[in-house]
Structure formats: structure tokens, C-alpha cells
Amino acid sequence: MLKISQNVSIPDDEIELSAIRAQGAGGQNVNKVSSAIHLRFDINASSLPDFYKQRLLNLRDHRISKEGVIVIKAQKFRTQEKNRGDALERLQKLIKGVAVIQKVRQPTRATRGSQERRLDSKALRGKTKTLRGRVSE
């Protein structure tokens, strides 16, 4: 059972985990051991609330296919157990990130004092630069 929040959790039978061979260098053992984990999670067939499903499907993430399946490949570690934990943690983080609602930014204006200070510093800088010019007689 993968816990997302106090009220939301995903049963283990909805998450499909399969062991595959990891890519990259690894010596003689790399071709014999399937230590990487391939995680597949179908959003539409899951027991997640509709709010989560809709937000996940609207995400523009390369890990989510057109059919609504999240595919995560974990091969950071050398052991299958650590990679399984890493894949589940990344799925949990992805779903938790969808639940957070961004606050709408309230546009603000610069104060008159800050605008005047900025313009004064620009004028001072310009004066300094003009003094670097040629000296005329």
C-alpha cells in the first residue's frame, strides 16, 4: 500500500513492478542480474480520486503516456530492493506534487521611493561614465 496522504493511498495490485536489466557499465555481473525496476501505473484504472486523475492526465510530463500510464524506470542503485523503493518514492512524489494548488500571484507595484532611488542611482552612474570621457580645453 503506497500512502499518498491521510485519506488517499494506492493498493499494491494497481502498481505493476517488473525487474529488467540496467543500462550502462557494470562489469561481468551486469548481463546476469536484473536489478533495474520498471514501474507502470495506469491512472484511469486506478482507485485515485477524480481530482488526482484529472490533474495527472493534464500534466505535461514525459513519464505519462498518451494512454494515461505512468512509466518510471529506476536504475540508480545496484540492488533491486533499493531501485524498487526509489521507483515507488518517485511515483509518490509525482502524485503528491499534483495535489498542491499553486497560489495565484498578486501583482505588486514598486513604491515611489524605490523608483526615485533607482533613477537617482542611474543618473549618478551616468554622470560617472561621462566624466571618463576626453578632457576638453
What general outline do the C-alpha atoms trace? elongated
Please tell me the overall pLDDT: 84
What is the C-alpha radius of gyration, as a whole number of Å?
A: 27 Å
Spell out the helices and strands N to C: EEEEHEHH
N-C termini distance: 86 Å
Number of helices, where a helix is a run of at least 4 consecutive DSSP H or I residues? 3
Quick one: how many beta strands? 5
Largest sheet: 3 strands, antiparallel
Side-by-side strand order of the widest sheet? 3-4-5
Keywords:
single chain, 137 residues, alpha+beta, three-stranded antiparallel sheet, 5 strands
Write the layout of secondary structure elements.
Blueprint: E1 2-3, E2 9-10, E3 15-20, E4 36-42, H1 50-58, E5 69-74, H2 80-99, H3 112-131
Antiparallel strand pairs: 1-2, 3-4, 4-5
